[in-house]
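Appendix C reproduces, verbatim, an entry submitted by the partner laboratory led by Prof. M.T., so that reviewers can inspect both the input and the predicted structure.
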Amino acid sequence: MSEALRVALVSPYDYPYPGGVTEHISDLDRHLRRMGHSVKIIAPSSSDEEDLDDHIIKVGATIVPFPFSGSIARISLSPRLVLRVRRIFQREFFDIIHVHEPTIPALSLAVLRESRSVNIGTFHAYRETINPSYEFGWPLFRHFIAKLHGRIAVSQAARDYMASYFPGEYRVIPNGIDVERFGREGVCPIERFTGDGKLNILFVGRLEKRKGFRYLLRAFRTIKAAVPEARLLVVGAYSKEDKAPFVRYVRHFKLHDVKFIGYVSAEELPRWYRTAHVFCAPSTGYESFGIVLLEAMASGVPIVASDIAGYRGVLQHGVQGELVPPESEEALAQAMIHLLRMPARRAAYGAAGRVTAPRYDWSIVSRQVVDFYLETLAAQRRPAVAQAGGKA
């Protein structure tokens, strides 16, 4: 193994709250430690400290909901963050400080201000429209991004988006998934939704506007009329208030076989994918990557997804599934009806997905991240060596 590194992974988001970035950090943390590296996570947290693992350093308990990229980010804006971060760096030394979403206030900016280590930033976000914060706050953000010694983007879409505001070199290293967890034999489907002749369409995600669930629900009226045995399973970390307008829609149109499941544990999630005959991701945009697409692929489930930049980088139309125009309930319905009526096509898409998913396994992705750490460290050490050599 290469040298053991001391790494700080920094999340600007409320760490216990479910989200793509915090889950990415949690998985990366686990694999880095498995590789023999020493890792600490620095993050705000709405949980009590005694409920967190020992290697998680809590900074900021007051969490503020903040609109960001079509979603709601839970961040800390405490004015004491800078002092807390400074104290952490006075007692802890890190070879690498890896900041996820380096431009998100306030923790990421505080860390970059106080860091004296080699700084890596991973950019997860993507949007199709201009970012007013970057348009008007460009000089401020440029100052902090200049403190990064290495930049990672989770997809080509995320790279192009960030480079349009902050030109420079970005290494594209994708998000990872645990292929074994979703793809292993012996994962049992949910019994109450199998064996009754129904064809299950699965949606996984929060019921935010950008996830496009309303288009899927509207499409389901057409799907149900054409394929009466269709059933829609809605899984995700959404609240009673989030689902209320959709429940009213279901009742108003007397739609049968729409099941709002809600939050399921990480351990249970693979079983829901195995229960599905088709997985649907109808997001309208703001997606830099398609983790749920890869989870479905690893599970051998064919996919119908919106034809957006973040999804095109993961799914090939006509190979692992089908891409349809975003915000089109008609296109969603026709693609879904087509697949539900063609079991052989579903099987072919599912088999192709199983071939694709292992490229994104965390065992591969975490190795790419560590290689980038070492490459960046070496680049920062070379000037010091050259300077010392010049004095000799």
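Residues 362-391 form the longest helix (30 residues). Additional entries are available on request from the coordinating office.
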